[in-house]
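Changelog note: in this version the structure field was regenerated for every chain. One regenerated record is shown below for reference.
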Amino acid sequence: MIHPGFSRRQYLKLVSAAPAASALAMQPTSEADRERRMKWWHEARFGMFIHWGLYSVLGRHEWAMEQEGIPVAEYEKLATQFKPKPTPAKEWAALAKKAGMKYMVMTTKHHEGFCHFNTSTTKYCAPKTAAGRDLVKEYVDAVRAEGLRVGFYFSLMDWHHPDGARCVKDEQARRRFVDYVHTQARELMTNYGKIDVLWYDVPWPLTAEGWESEKMNAMVRKLQPDIIMNNRSKVPEDFDTPEQRIEASKGRNWEACMTMNDSWGYHKADDNWKSPKACVRNLLTCARQGGNYLLNIGPTADGSIPPESVKILTAVGAWTAKNGAAVYGTDPCSVSRSNYMSFTRKGNTLFANVHFWPGSEVAIGGLRSKVLSAKLLATGAPVKFEQEEFRVKFTGLPVNAPDSPITTIAVECDGEPKQDMNRVREERPRLQA
């Protein structure tokens, strides 16, 4: 049980660290099967998160119901105002593809308890309220039409259901609530064809045993044999989920989920937008460390994407269209030290991703591998280089950055690129006193 004094940030940090806890038993699945199921995911590296719900009507963050103490009876009236325009998911999927994203994960039900899908469990869902239609089906159809992978976000915590809090102290309430949640999970896994990702969230207030998570996840795998699941049902499953930070898991698959401003759901006053450069740098950092980057949009109540999100993702997409080789299907990269560039790797090719362009010369210190050739990734133009004992210099480059927001130099080496900065510090010749 989560202490009521915990902040959401503290709680999510605990959840993302949960796989390390010996008390949690791994869902039985072979590593070979996991590798098979996750092959596409490792190659994808980049996905879109969508937070959309009744909170989008308020436009004050997706936690408004709890943070503002809004009564359930008052909040549920928002369902009468939630009337999305026709098929907004087509716009989301088109933008995701344009941005270079390979999969999408949409909130089928957030903590507010409102379901975007047709469910037998409640009338508090889009098809039975003002929206008048199954918004999850629209989303699935739109994602598949763009050739992307389909993911479902599904909140276990529910602020609307009458048993959503008392279930921790009342066994009859727990039985009702767990059956309610398991039924919804079954509906999501049964009614929409092949689903690629199930993304649980916030397992408050029960333990894994209370949720009967292993039973629920076994049911999910039976219905969707190729699905991958995150760690937020309090069972480790397939991948970890550091939130609003990039933190590689040791010996585990991981995906950093992050916002473009400071809010997941639509927040009309939140103007703290990340730059396209910041988003590309985050993507590259995730790729270098062998993880994925799930970047969020928070559509308005009618499903429109905020123009700032469109602008950012369009710029990111212009970069990935030319430099995607530095991201997709990349391998973990041990080269990391520079003040103005980050690194990714695929096989023996090192991608030097320069975010602060220094001018006509770029240098990498401590590179131990022999450089065979170099080129600008976006154009294929060859780049001259000089390799010395303690550095490699790439010369004859334009004074101004040839690409935006980051210029990538593809460096072909004679083996896996390695960097030894301790050797530079210890063995580089010093002047005689």
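Spot check on this record: The domain at 341-427 is CATH 2.60.40.1180 (Immunoglobulin-like). Residues 1-9, 16-27 have pLDDT under 50 and may be disordered.
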